[in-house]
Predict the structure.
Amino acid sequence: MMAKITASVFTSHVPAIGAAMDLGKTHEEYWKPLFKGYEYGKRWMKDNKPDVIFLVYNDHATAFSLDFIPTFAIGTAPEFQPADEGWGPRPVPVVKGHPDLASHIAQSVIQQDFDLTIVNKMDVDHGLSVPLSLMCGQPPADNFEWPCPVIPFAVNVVQYPVPSGQRCYNLGKAIRKAIESYDQDINVHIWGTGGMSHQLQGARAGLINKEFDNAFLDKLINDPQAAADIPHIDYVREAGSEGIELVMWLIARGAMNDVNGGKAPLLKQRFYHVPASNTAVGHVILENQF
């Protein structure tokens, strides 16, 4: 008996997407093409509901500030409140954690020589809640909860120095090993969120690079080691200062079977759209084959 990762989900986490959902704007002409791209994912999620989601994202100076910046932080609490990012918390459910599995992963990954920060109390911002809203919809008022527990895994891609793509990819391998050594028969999804190309400030504010984004998706799906080999400077130069968020996708990809000697995953969805509030949006679903 053991836990297993059955799928990886990749998506951008643009804050304006959450605002569009919260304010009932998803049917406006500007937003319709984007939300149409997630209709398949919502159906797939209902048909492939996991027992736990391990969700890789980045905090946007809500749980952590410049006073304290962990490179990799795992949430081990029983629950996580939606963060107030300056205009009140999003009207979404409290995130229920999975302290037992999270603590097991922390123990295993640290013993595999990755330094993790253990976080027993933190609020979670749009980096985590927008992907959940996109894939699960807005839970109805009479059943106000997410479909399963979520383990938040925060990566520093905000304040330099940031981890390399290769380190994130290797960390994904360690997380897979940790999950598969857990002695309960549970189904786990691993999600990589953030990106794609975007820059929020300076002379290149508003930068979107469709060619780089789609080349990254090609590599992510078909040759993940090539994606892991992309040097940090290429993300900054080609995808903008915030494009570095794509390294978080490599954590999820590194946890898939083919990276660890198994079969290639099944591509269930690939979607790309621009613009969404001056950024590019990407979305991929991969299913492990056993």
